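Forum: Protein Structure Q&A
Topic: Joint prediction for protein chains with partners

I've read a bunch of threads here and the consensus seems to be that you should model interacting components together rather than docking separate models afterwards. I'd like to see that in practice. Below is the full input, 1082 residues plus whatever partners are listed. Could one of the regulars post the assembled result?
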Amino acid sequence: MGNKQTTFTDEQLEAFQDCTFFTRKEILRLHSRYRELAPHLVPLDYTNNPDIRVPLALIVTMPELKENPFRDRIVETFSEDGQGNLSFNDFVDMFSALCETSPRELKTIYAFKIYDFNRDNFICKDDLQQTLTLLTKGELTEDEVLLVCDKALEEADLDGDSKLSFSDFQNMISKAPDFLRYNHVLYSHLYLCLLLLLLLLLLLLSG
Amino acid sequence: MSRRSNVVPNVLYDVDGVAQRRNNRRQAAGRGGAKGRGRGKKPASDEEEEDEEEEDEAPRGRRGANKKKPAKKRGDDDSEDEAPKRKRGGAANKKKGGKAQDSDEEDSDAPKGQKGRGGKGGKKGGKEEEETKGKKGDAKGKDKGGQNNISSDSSSNSDEEEESMSEGEMARLMEEVEEKKKLIANIRNKPWRMKRRLTHLKEAQAFVDKFEGALGKGKGRKWYAYKVMMTKVLMGLPYGSIPRKTVPREEQDTAQDYSVLMDFNVRCSSYYFSTTKTLFLSQGYCKYSVLFYGFYNNERTIGLLKFRLPLSYLMVGIGTFGYSLMLVIRTMAKNADVGGGDGEEGEFTFAWKMFTSWDYLIGNAETADNKYASITTSFKESIVDEQENQKDENIHLRRFLRVLANFLITCSLGGSGYLIYFVVKRSQEFATRDDLSWYEKNELEIIMSLLGLVCPPLFETIAELEDYHPRIGLKWQLGRIFALFLGNLYTFLFALFDEVNTKLEEEQAIKNASIYAMKEYYANYSRLVNDSEATPPPMNPADVIRGPCWETAVGIEFVKLTVSDIQVSYLTILIGDFARAVIVRFLNYCWCWDLEAGFPSYGEFDISGNVLGLVFNQGMIWMGAFYAPGLVGINVLRLLSSMYYQCWAVMATNVPHERVFKASKSNNFYMGLLLLVLFLSLLPVVYTIMTLPPSFDCGPFSGKSKMFDVVMETIDLDLPAFMGTLFSYAANPGLIIPAVLLMVLAIYYLNSVSEAYKNSNMELKKKMQMARDEEKNRRNNTDSTNQVMKDLEDLLPNRSLAPPPEPEKPPEPEPKPTKTKPGAAGKGVNLQKDVALASPNPNARGPVRPGPGPGPGPGPGPGPGRGRGRGPPPR
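Posted by a regular:
Agreed with the consensus. Here's the joint model:
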């Protein structure tokens, strides 16, 4: 490593690489981002796994989270203490789960946790109301909020306990249009056949 | 011992999740016997151990523990064993109890001599070990470490031991290792805390390292290392391997099309040489440049490598179409979401809006505000939709207006078509004159661009009459603009064909003239020189008199069209958006009303219109590329520059569209348009290739009667003779017609199969819907269904309650207030119904009631019944 200050040992980096969706460079970059948040708190040298946590208030100032209505919940969800204080591990964890390459299933799990404001492993009506209030900046009237929450519950609640369990949530999310990615080969065959046919016809007509 | 005791609990704790899962699996496979037994014994054995010597070596016991009875003896053996062997044995035992035992015994026979040493210790250690093993294999890694140290002295025995290990054990161990490896590969997908993940990873890796090496005797290890390396390489750049720039949701559909189109163009341009020459579009310098068909000549082969220019020209022209088709179709197939249509749309409107509407990529305050606003609007919209689902007050007026709107739009479409036809005709007249002004020269392109500029807003205004739902309205609007573009393009094409035909006649005349001239030349030559040998004329007769070369003319038309399109769209942005934004922004300081919020305001970025423009533009390129290969280069430049230019314009001068539609839903809509455009632009080109005779004196096909004769020529001259006959058979109508038939049948078959799939999809959906409804019904009617149960319970002797229905009623009111919170008024009603239903029952029950009941009855009796009846609320 020469005269460069080592932040992580190779082993640590490899472990992080195995545990996250990031490359070496990205992990180092994450560390520098982490350190930027609280330069006085976070050491450059992380080889001995110092137990340092950066408080929620600092984390949510990151541009990635700054505008997110659920920023506090996201950070809380990923913090080990539930208070929103993130150790570097938690920090990496958070970005790994949120990154583009992480699979839908994982994202769904974390999304469920994020929307579960009171952490009872169900998304109940209160959670829905809070979600809605955050999402619309409280611009809906009380009645409207209630109506929307009722409707959402009615749509997604399959087991009829008037709160959303994880399976309800998963079912609902997996059908969301952005999640739909069918590979419909049949149609492509159909189109190809059609086109070949037309070309052949042309050939026949001209020849 | 102290070390052991530290390790074990930690590991147990950490790895619990995995262990559990793994255990389940194993047990399911019926292999769990040993483990189960081991665990059962555990408590006792633990105690024993503690009493006895603590300095026991941890690893030793493992095997012994697994084989309960022969534990002592074997334990001794084990202590002397080398680490790997032990591990193997341990793992194997762990995995499957019954079988493993036999083989173990066999194994252990070999080193029996060492038995004597520490029977007791072995046993105990074994048991303790077993606990670890039984729970989870992960702990093994650590144990192994310990074992190694301890057993290093006994390494000499290892070879024997290894040999003695049975195949089954090996297999089992391999399985275990595979499992670990799988864990390592998937650990990033586990919803665990990072700490836990790291611990598991370390353990699994240690385990794998140990066993891989030992098992595969070096080879395995190398293979594993290779695999790890490969996965690292692959995982380093997983799935979306190349770091993609993320695109804001609002621009996704644009981006999508850009990427496809760019992709296409870039690839094409690598075939054609893309020239960056400045354009001189008049019939001057560029006419014979590399940009156009006329530049290429008809030499059969060029250079040492015998590059067959005419053949490759044709092949590239057709191959481009084929490739684009494949690309478009594949993209379409990729994002065709079956059944994602209207059926499911209604299912989760609100839930989706609530959970999936936020875009996690937003990092800009203004964008975030817009998003908040748009989410709020969409919620309000759906609320309104929900509240007044059908309110068609005046359906007749609406219908009349819609018909009127369509009539108006058809009129304007027809008008624009006629205008273009008229202009093309006029331009043909102009073509014979020299004294043309700039406008007259470029009239056609200007008119077409202006039509493209004026008509869409006009359509939008007319569409106001129709009052469709915005999403449907958008589709109509896009369809109309598309029809306009297409109509214009085709009118233009037909007019062009007229021109081409006149050019062809002209050309025929010139050809005759030049042939005549050549004959004259020969005649003169032979007369003057009196030499019968054919001496080549001083220059190619084709070069004596230049024909009009209709291909180049067509290419020039397309290039002109493209360039004027570029100019118009850039100018539109500059004037329509930028100037407007500047005026709105700065005049606002001294104006009577609020310009920003009021009338002119800022321009909206019209995503759909822009995408449509791209699609149309691409169609022109497809059409023109055959006759003007340089067009592709021009288009690449255009797309690149317009991307940055429009990006700047959007950032600087535009506001986001009021209604943002999810790109994913309309994705295939645009791709479908692209496919249609592709097909429609393919038609004329293929038609010309197949039917029109190429110019005799320019282009790669000069001298042929049809363009595709190059192919025939190549087949005849360059391929072995039998290929020629083969092709002639293949081109036989007798073969083509059956092939056509076959394809029709294939289409029919595929179509019906997809229909069937669709149907079964619908069926499944219906079933799911029914199941859901049933579930809901059940929930709503829990009271009534539970009534039966209640009655049954009441019939039980010790339950038998004296309380007639009357006493039941009083307690009812008090729970009600709590129920109001969930806001289910219906439940209250149900409850009362319930009570009403319940009342007759006690009478029927009358005879069953034994005497003693009445006393304790009222309290507990109704309690449980009510609770169940009410279902969720009390919970």
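Chain A has eleven helices and two strands.
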